[in-house]
UniProtKB/TrEMBL annotation, chains A, B:
This is Chloride channel protein. Keywords: CBS domain, Chloride, Chloride channel, Ion channel, Ion transport, Membrane, Repeat, Transmembrane, Transmembrane helix, Transport. GO terms for cellular component: chloride channel complex; plant-type vacuole membrane. It comes from Eucalyptus grandis (Flooded gum). It is a multi-pass membrane protein. InterPro entries: CBS_dom_sf, Cl-channel/antiporter, Cl-channel_core, Cl_channel_pln, ClC.
Length: 632, 632
């Protein structure tokens, strides 16, 4: 139609097909599985840290994420597919880890061996590594991504398992690419991998190339931090809109789609025709970037031997468009990644810098684009090693030195501002992510300083009515159990009981009529297998008579009598290390009985209790040292 | 001389120069720093696990390791340089971490920022990664080696630091190679890197190549286990000899040198001349392998387009020689690595398999040699991912699929026998290495079950004579401190005090004349900095008068009042997780006071106390599952 100069019709077809695809993606996301919106990497990262966001690993989410991501990427929105691929991989892994999907009857019996917390975490880690490996055909990069960015706990055995996963992904992917290159997969064409156009494997770089590389790193750090800042603001505005209802969400997505279509269709008209390839069909350099898949745009930008192909104006327009359009596109209610938009944006300004420096450098513009992408990724995502290895694998092992320099500088510079993009999104979503290191002011506090709210505890032999009341009025998942006279000589912390186990006891009605310990009865009614079920009981589902409410429960046989315990004078930083390294959910405090959970260690909570610490000298000291150490 | 047919003279020169170099290496190792003998990887691995073997990181060791390794490798002994390089890297890192060497006056003031346990561990980890990177010019392989094999604790920040280290190593190394390739480094020639001779980057492999690859994996697993078995036996015999004195050690090294010289000089006479390159100068294929550096031998074996170059007999002789000579050479008193001998041996039988299969496979013999090396490495060292990546980096990214298969099979098969080679050496040296996972029978035991020997504890206010007596009669590094009536209402575990702190107190003579707590005096005499010194006091160096012995020490202000504590009914497996993950040295037990150290968790200790567990059903169950899980 463009060739026939039927521009109006062409725009209509272009924008309507974009609109339809976006609408479909937004509809299934909003109606079927809202958890599938966005990148998915923050959710998976939080899950691996021990935060279980609702519905992120269901079969529905998997379905919506896959279909929705295909639609969103096809609809010309500037969104990526890497994040959704990571989420998809993690989803499949988690479904395998819970023995399939019970709800849809897809279960395998042999999968029950993996049905425990540790194996499920391992599987999800491997799944996320597989996602990156699939997006970039980078097996080692995927492994390192999982290790550097995703995993909160790591075992030596996991290295091999994750690498096995990513290697299988890479092998299958390469086989499929080979099939497609031989022309046997019809419309799918050559697939959407970003591969650098390499003919000679030796890239020579000299001392004169150092200043431009340093410059790129600095620009990347600044632009990346700014990107994160804008993205956070836009997400906050979008959240206000999205909270109003499903209709608002979908309208927002539609508007973004229409805006994108107009922009993409309109912008190429601004660029003048280049001397080559232009007549008869209004083909120009900006259109070659804009009217392409993102992957092909990256390929164009990364390719060498095309130093004369782009004009300054086109590259600048393209860069500005990508920068802001990707920020606007991310928050809509559809699966949307950030990796590819960031690479496109970074590559475009890298190319621009290369064009400005021109013949003063030995590097060609394609290499500048690669370095620009690295610097922008380093500035916004801060995952230096995995990015370096992914880019090395993408570009067939060129450029180790300049890539390292660019990433080091952009990361260091950007770290002076705020956290990385995924941490910002996690914070925006309110996930209580637990960092490895303790904040310096935590050394000034003891475990006794951070307890808030009235403590709920049970006695070894407790009245049923009391258990029901506490279960109804609190959302705690673990309760300390104490023994007091006359059942023991002095008050004594017996252990910790879980809410799920209490629910099971209430369900089985293993009650005593008198508050006297008789543990024989209890074990006859209840077996160990009853406690293996997960999330089996809600307090609201349990019906008890008046009479039963007046009876008693002997909690002793069902209490964990050797929970991890700390004294209340222990430094908070020390307790945090225990909590984090062992991967606990509840930490008991003695001799004044208390319970510590993840929330008690969150900086926001601690600082809210002790506002004077915010500006303490520890904080300032830390800032200075952190700068220094980050150089290494 | 060989060309002039003066064979006797040639042998004399060959064997005497070998003898001299070996003698020198053995002498400096035995006299200056015995800790520099052997590979060094087991020592560094044990250090990173928390076992501090004496003298492994001194400036002397660094010196002896570097010089000795150069001499040993040059002296035609079949020993490697990778292990020594890893040890060297770790040594330099540790010296930086302790602020230089005090003994030789080489200290830097700014290094004191790294003078703490965590930074030192991090530095040593990075140093060991640098060693592997330097040996193979494999930055990612070095990183993964440190991660998979060396590190016992791992933080996300360490990924970047280790990669930065290895990348710098790789860049410097490449620059030096470039300089040497241009002929500017005289006798050093082309350097000893193993680089695969690649011209086309596409290696095609088909389904018919699967059986030979499987075969190689199986042979590698079996030969590798057998290699470990022989090596352990030989090391045991050598230990018996070496224990008798330095003279015995040196004589043993000299004998091995003479034996090696005879073998290497004599063997090429067995091989008949090949049709090419032979007359006039008795050059033959076996000599091309034997009279070369190991690195060049590997290069020859790995190279393609040389399918007709080697005879069956030569390869078989070479393989057998390498296999047994490397076992005999390792245990002598000189720096000696295992990596390169294992690669040479593996490559030779890989090539042999390739020759036997011949034209039935698409792979050339060079690739078979690479796969053979991988299988033998997998069978003896079991570090699958790092080996895979190192070999991928060595061979420029060919062969991902067959390498993975070979490593998977050889590792799985070999794991059915005994531990990996470094674990065997660590066990032979008696290092108490703490594994990540708890043995299954530990779930049947509680913390109370493993305490051995009489407990030494102190009271909050303790008699000086008592402190001196206990310090003299035990080697413990931590003691529980309890308060008893009349100082407290009931017996009460106050905390943990370290031997080093007790020594400092005795030195400062911060004594009380009466057993009454007055904490003001104590803090005036002693400041926090006094406790920062390390290993400052030996009990034998402290002189106390009779009068002082009758005085008292108030330990309260110097006791760690919030040590990690577990109840004695806690499962041993659970306590081990706490001990291992948090990286403790002492774990307190309550309410019956006790102390748990690394030795209490060692399987040997636990099984010695509870011999019935050795054949318990848990053990059998574990064996079955372990097999199954290792497939992943």
């Amino acid at each position: 139609m463009m060739l026939q100069r039927r521009f109006g019709m062409a725009f209509l077809v272009f924008s309507l097909s974009n609109f339809g695809l976006t609408l479909f993606a937004a509809l299934i996301t909003a109606l079927v599985s809202p958890a599938a919106a966005g990148s998915g990497i923050p959710e998976v990262k939080a899950y691996l840290n021990g935060v279980d966001a609702p519905g992120i690993f269901t079969l529905r989410t998997l379905f919506v994420k896959t279909i929705g991501s295909v639609c969103a990427v096809s609809s010309s929105l500037l969104v990526g597919k890497t994040g959704p691929l990571v989420h998809t991989g993690a989803c499949i892994a988690s479904l395998l880890g819970q023995g399939g999907s019970k709800r849809y009857g897809l279960t395998w019996k042999w999968l029950r061996y993996f049905k425990n917390d540790r194996d499920r975490l391992d599987l999800v880690t491997c799944g996320s590594a597989a996602g990156i490996a699939a997006a970039f055909c980078a097996p080692v990069g995927g492994l390192l991504f999982a290790l550097e960015e995703m995993a909160s706990w790591w075992r030596s055995a996991l290295v091999w398992r994750a690498f096995f996963t990513t290697a299988v992904v890479a092998i299958v992917l390469r086989a499929l690419i080979d099939v497609c290159l031989s022309g046997k997969c019809g419309l799918f064409g050559k697939g959407g991998l970003i591969m650098y156009d390499v003919t000679s494997s030796n890239v020579a770089y000299h001392i004169v190339d150092v200043p431009p590389v340093l410059l790129l790193g600095m620009i990347g750090g600044l632009l990346g931090s700014l990107y994160n800042f804008f993205l956070e603001k836009v997400l906050r505005i979008y959240n206000l809109i999205n909270e109003k209802g499903i209709a608002y969400k979908i309208v927002l997505a539609c508007w973004i789609s229409i805006f994108t279509s107009c922009l993409l269709f309109g912008l190429p008209w601004l660029a003048s025709c280049r001397k080559f390839q232009c007549p008869p069909g209004h083909y120009n350099d900006l259109a070659s970037l804009i009217f392409n898949t993102n992957d092909d745009a990256i390929k164009n930008l990364f390719s060498k031997g095309t130093d004369d192909e782009f004009q300054y104006s086109s590259i600048i327009i393209f860069f500005v468009t990508c920068y802001f359009l990707s920020i606007l596109s991310y928050g809509i209610v559809a699966p949307a990644g950030l990796f590819v938009p960031v690479i496109v944006t970074g590559a475009s300004y890298g190319r621009l810098v290369g064009m400005l420096i021109g013949s003063h450098s030995n590097l060609n513009h394609g290499l500048f684009a690669v370095l620009g992408a690295a610097s922008f990724l380093g500035g916004s995502m801060r995952m230096t090693v995995s990015l370096c290895v992914i880019l090395l694998e993408l570009t067939n092992n060129l450029l180790l030195l300049p890539l390292m320099m660019v990433l080091l500088i952009s990361k260091t510079l950007a770290d002076a501002f705020k956290g990385n993009i995924y941490d910002l999104i996690m914070k925006a979503k309110g996930f209580p992510y637990l960092e490895t290191h303790a904040e310096p002011y935590m050394r000034q506090l003891t475990v006794g300083d951070v307890v808030s709210g009235p403590l709920q505890l049970f006695h070894g032999i407790e009245k049923v009515a009391n258990v029901v009341h506490v279960s109804r009025t609190t959302r705690h998942n673990g309760f300390p159990v104490i023994d007091e006279p006359p059942h023991s000589e002095s008050p004594f912390l017996y252990g910790l009981i879980l809410r799920a186990h209490l629910m099971e006891l209430l369900k089985k009605k293993a009650f005593l009529s008198d508050p006297v310990p008789t543990d024989i009865d209890a074990f006859e009614q209840i077996s160990a297998e009853d406690f293996m079920k997960r999330g089996s009981g809600m307090i609201e589902d349990i019906d008890l008579t008046e009479e039963e409410m007046e009876m008693f429960l002997d909690l002793h046989p069902f209490t964990n009598a050797s929970p991890y315990t700390v004294v209340e004078t222990m430094s908070l930083a020390k307790a945090l290390i225990l909590f984090r390294e062992v991967g606990l959910r509840h930490l008991l405090r003695s001799p004044v009985v208390g319970i510590l959970t993840r929330h008690d260690f969150m900086p926001e909570h601690v600082l809210a209790l002790h506002p004077t610490l915010i500006r303490s000298r520890w904080k300032r000291l830390r800032l200075q040292f952190a700068r220094l150490l980050k150089l290494f």
